[in-house]
Amino acid sequence: MQLLENMEHLYLSGNRLEYFPPVVLTLRKLKTLHLGGNYIDSCPSNISVLTSLTVLYFGGNRLREIPASIGTLENLENLGLCDNILETIPSTLGDLNWLETLSLHNNKLRTLPTDILNLRRLQQLSLRNNPLVHSFVHNMDLCPPSLKELTGRIVRQNMTPEMVEYIPTDIIEYLNSACQCVNPECKGVYFDARVEHVKFVDFCGKYRVPLMQFLCSARCSAGIPSVPYDTSSESEEEIEPIMRRVLLG
Fold this sequence. Notes:
This protein has helices at residues 131-138, 147-158, 169-176, 218-221, and strands at residues 9-11, 32-34, 55-57, 78-80, 101-103, 124-126, 179-180, 189-190, 195-203, 207-215, 243-245. By secondary structure, it is of the alpha/beta class.
């Protein structure tokens, strides 16, 4: 095969390869390389010599790690690493400036490097069935609001400037610590008890990033305002809502 100097597309998926074929590294004009559905347990660090690659598919193997040198494949547009046993991926993936699709589902990933945010052309990022997703989504518990919390919400939502002089200073401080529900149709507030909800939003118009929203009730996570705005009322004091960016890990 090393005599096939002009080969650009090579499909070796669905075989019983137990290691990366060294001869592939001599095919310097390769643009597409499919090695999915084999028994390969490692990727050679000198894969960086295949600088013309635009598509690299390793899905359905036994990979435990990916070499940092993969970040030098500057023309890569599609990288498939799904269905392996990866626990981490190298931060150098953030150097793949032309990458549009990154498939990482069905692995054992618990964290992601923040360098992924550098992938401005990324359109598809698949993360399902990884521990980082399961723990992130399923470990969100709601603490029932206390009587103090419930009372504070009602007072804060209906408080007027005239009421301030009749309320003790320490209670005023507590009321002023209220956070606004991020549901744009809800005027509800919360203090300590809140519902954590993940919402996927467009990031730079390229791909979707999960954001952690803090809401005043479970109803708001379904899009139903717990305390709807009265459109006929005058504008009220604004309380800054809280939304925290979370990168699933």
